[in-house]
Specification:
Length: 216
């Protein structure tokens, strides 16, 4: 079972690398490049592009940082790097990626069901990340780890949304708001529910680590 979980995390990390590589191609700042070519109405508003770049360019790097942040092996071996990456992850989400995603939500034009999903996701992403930061500032490691897992579960939505679109694009008409709505909600809600289901195990594990540190 542990080997299967490790394989799944490795696969997700490889997808994250690919997604980050694609996101960083937008550093060319070409307003008609790639995905932006389909969003010319939004681009012409003069309001969309800054938030798009804040969300996409930082979001890919935040995604990779998130994998390292939730890795207990990496945290033990490279604690200083873990803390520095944590600052990047937290402030990148709070000041760039989450606000960028929030504004971009209003330009999706897939109906209220999709808009509600993206607005709620970005709001919770901001809140969970802020709580993780506040808890570690108070040296509450157990609560910090739990809030970080909640935050990362929503960070993973970047991968899940694209995976579901790829898997269903030949079966469902994603131009329909109802079909896209299912994909939008499925990209983050099951992730968060899984964290909530296993949160006692996560919390207990974190408490045990804190106890061992205190005793050491």
């Amino acid at each position: 079972m542990r080997g299967l979980a490790k394989l799944a995390w490795t696969f997700l990390f490889l997808l994250a690398l690919a997604l980050t590589g694609n996101a960083l191609t937008y550093v060319n700042l070409d307003p008609s490049y790639g995905f932006l070519n389909f969003k010319q109405g939004a681009v012409s508003s003069g309001f969309y592009l800054p938030f798009f770049y804040a969300h996409v360019l930082l979001g890919g790097l935040i995604l990779l940082a998130g994998f390292l942040q939730v890795s207990s092996w990496f945290r033990k071996k490279y604690l200083t790097i873990h803390r520095n990456l944590g600052r990047f992850y937290v402030f990148g989400i709070l000041f760039f990626a989450a606000p960028g995603g929030l504004v971009m939500s209003f330009f999706v034009n897939k109906g209220p069901w999709v808009l509600t999903s993206f607005l709620l996701q970005c709001s919770l992403w901001f809140y969970f990340t802020a709580m993780a930061f506040l808890k570690i500032r108070k040296k509450d490691v157990a609560a910090h780890e739990l809030w970080m897992w909640r935050s990362f579960s929503l960070t993973l939505a970047a991968i899940m949304l694209r995976a579901y679109i790829f898997l269903t694009s030949n079966t469902f008409d994603l131009g329909q708001s109802s079909a896209y709505g299912i994909i939008a909600w499925a990209s983050w809600l099951p992730n968060l529910l899984l964290v909530e289901y296993f949160k006692k195990g996560i919390l207990r594990k974190a408490l045990n680590k804190s106890s061992q540190v205190a005793q050491g």
